[in-house]
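Hey, can you fold this?
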Amino acid sequence: MRVGIIGFGNMGSAFAQGLRDVVSEVLVYDKDETKREQALSLGFGTAKSIEFLLPCDFLLLAVKPKDVQEVLLGLKGKLKGEVLVSVVAGLSIEKILQFVGQDVKVIRTMPNLNVKVKMGAIAFCSTENIPNRVKEKFVDIFSSCGKLYEIEERLIDAFTALAGSGPAFVFKFIQGLSMAGVMEGFSYPVALDIVLQTLRGSCELLLKEGGHPEEWISRVASPSGTTIEGLKVLEERAFIGTILECVRQTSQKAKKL
């Protein structure tokens, strides 16, 4: 199984490192020589042109939106059996096919930054000309970078808001809790460590034990206790409403890309 990667930025390099242990070869191209040298230093084969990535089983498109048209037009007529996998935000399957040809096999994905630690949330949708066995192989190898969700393309923008931008919202929450810890007397490193352990444990608890988040909230919040006082403040400040509006506006922005 051979994977070619066009672009060695944040996403390209993250996928390269996630895939290296599950495929026979990962070959990288980037127009920036510094990026190619970086890939080489990490043990990846590099190519001086996109053509040298072919033939391959999956060709991962991980370039900046401004470079997409040039790259895709350069691929027109050159893709035979390869499946083109795009991680470019805002780039629809229809748009890709306009550039490379209507018969090309395309998988559109929306990953988040957590693929860097092989814990990404990755949505995907595909053209109808991809055989099930090929789609299964895609899921099999790309699962090394996180959990995959096959969704309708119309939901990609919503997924972008929820999971693509989600880590930034989570980091903001982590920062807020950590600063609250500092306000109460902890040093920042200790407060951050406490918050990270609390989040990690809470996620594991929900994943392993199941149930609805509200059920676990009720178990933590004792009658007339400390937790319910804090929850009261969150309710008064429209905590959930703020999150809903945050994701809604992020999704609307994604639709305009």
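Oh, and this one too while you're at it.
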Amino acid sequence: MSFKNVLAPALLSLILVFSFFACNREAEKPNMIMFLADDLSYEDLSCYEHPVVRTPHVDQMAKEGLSLTHMFTTTSMCAPSRSAMYTGLYPHRNGCHMNHGSVKEGIRSLPHYLEPLGYHVALVNKRHIKPLEAFPFDYLHKDSVEQYLSCLNNEPFCLIYASDEPHGPHSEGRIKGGDVQVPPTWVDSPEARHKYARYLNDVEKMDAEFGSLIDLLKDKDLYENAVTIFTSDHGYEYFAKWTCYETGLRVPFIIRWKNLEPGIQNHAMA
């Protein structure tokens, strides 16, 4: 059965991806890389037909991998979303259902499942999870990723790169307020267009950061055989984050792996 037809009805997490390999400890153990954007709504990528923003590195991965067009996060808040992703449990099960909240005592997370299989499990940059005892990652600054990978001696790893982009505060860049049309749920004003343009500039910064990570992995010959995922914790902060609107809960999700047919879109809810 093709992996692209096996979709969890609620949460497709790294734990479920790795359960395929856990059944046989002698099976191939591919490296896993996940790039996690911060406050990025589903529709704000050029591969999802946004008319203004340019995201060539994410677009290239979409051409090479499987895109889930109806992936939804468990909640449109940072800490609960990340805690659910790293534990494989909904917020009401793991205990973190408020922003800046904590999971309950005894909750297990990715390192607990993957380290017994021989994996190094690292979280780069943003944390926003607690208590840290429940999430025993190797915590890295983004400038130390190359050194970390160089020290692994070809042992398998799971690397989650948690970007700060396109989370605010936003910056000036190529896109100006006059270049954009605000989403239909917004009040259309010069201020709103300027705010939206600045956010889209940070989406482009995020894409460049993603491209730099992929280039590093390619330079170290760690990309072609890896399972690579691009996604977001939830949607954009304005009229999306903190809400149950679709722009808050629906996130991009692209997975690339040598055993997946490239350039496929799957429209099942996940």
